[in-house]
Amino acid sequence: MLVLSDPWALSDCAVVLPASLAPVLELCDGTRDVATLRTVLELKTGLRVGPDYLEKMFAALDRALMMDNEHFAQVYEEAVRKFRSAPSRPPTMADRVYPANSELLEQVLCGYFDGLLPDTESMARADEVRGLVSPHIDYQRGGIVYAEVWRRAAQATRAAELAIILGTNHFNGQKLVTLTRQSYSTPWGVLATASDVVDAVASALGEGEVFAEEFNHRNEHSVEAATVWLHYLVKDKSCELVPVLCGSFQRFIDGDGSPGDDDKIARFVEAVRNAAGNRRTLIVAAADLAHIGPAFGDRYPINLLEKARLSSADNELISAITRGDAEGMFQLVKKEVDRRRICGLSSIYLALRLLGEVKGDVTGYAQCPADEQETSFVSICGIVLT
User: Fold this and answer.
1) For residue 300, what are the β-bridge partners?
2) Beta partners for 242?
3) pLDDT digit of tens for each residue in the chain (386 aa)?
């Protein structure tokens, strides 16, 4: 069976279909009528269906908002309007990944900090911190790595006047960066978005470019995962936010080009730097690393030998990040054709480009199970950039 659901959650319905209908779905590009689709289905699979079977299937898909038609467009446009006009973007991970109650959430985060070993470097390096790489995996699996890197950056976070959080756009984002003028809320209240920085990027790249996929901010968890730790540390102090969803670098991996030669990236970096001005700015890449194993499409389970190979490959990637070498990091991923599915590639790359000359200290690393059999893993790390 095929189970189709909407990650935007515009509809609370899921549609379950026989897997034999996959060829029909692949051909639903708007150029064929139902009769033609019935014929193609029979020719490709030998499956005959009644004259009204496909009509009923399409009606069900339409009710679940899975057809690219006028009905979907109307619902989508209304949802975007409501998102933009809301007082703030509400948390989507509350009561799923962390408690919605602010006091309970504080206890949870304090528990992660209390579980760490003493760190004599935290106080000494705080004033030098300019950015960090923080995971966006759930706190249950990555809590210690989160706590290690945010503890090291705690004083710099509290001193920040502006925080630019670059999160992965998991919604197959085709745009380089996706911004929003909407502010983000957490159980402690609202972190206001720095509209002047957003406006500067929109002016440099075009409103259509940076807001075309804005609705992805509503359910995307990557920025939120870092925002909660940021807000926990800044509390009532004023710190503006620039939430950025970073799209796929697949076109650079598949082609001959490099993000280092991309004009849009250059204009994005220049616009953010100029708009941030003299404000004390913290750059955060909310990024995980590799995703390997059957849960992500690999045909083989990840055993101890494969985990050791993963550590070695991750160490090479992390080494490039700690050198501040954005291009070197990208070339490592391109060389292996992103075989390990580096989820935070664009987020980390853009963070390093924004920061310029930096060096990094690794605060933590983990390989987190991604299935019940522990044959698939997500690797994560924490890095403080000074």
Assistant:
1) none
2) 164
3) 999 988 888 998 899 998 888 888 988 999 999 989 988 888 888 888 887 899 999 999 999 999 999 999 999 999 999 999 999 999 999 999 999 999 999 999 999 999 998 875 554 466 789 999 999 999 999 999 999 999 999 999 999 999 999 999 999 878 999 999 999 999 999 999 999 999 999 999 999 999 999 999 999 999 999 999 999 999 888 899 999 999 999 999 998 789 999 999 999 999 999 999 999 999 999 999 999 999 999 999 999 999 999 999 999 999 999 999 999 999 999 999 999 999 999 999 999 999 999 999 999 999 999 999 999 999 999 999 99
CB atoms closer than 10 angstroms to residue 19: 7
Give the separation between CA 20 and CA 40, rounded to whole angstroms.
12
Domain spans, the chain: 2-80, 88-385
Q: Is the dihedral of CA 295, 298, 302, 307 positive or negative?
A: negative
- Three-state SS for 337? coil
- The whole-model pTM stands at 0.93
Could you give the CA distance from residue 188 to residue 196 in angstroms, rounded to a whole number?
A: 24
Write out the two tokens for 204: 């440099």
- 88-385, what's its fold? Protocatechuate 4,5-dioxygenase; Chain B (3.40.830)
Cα distances (Å, whole numbers) of residue 110 to 103, 132, 248, 336: 11, 20, 34, 39
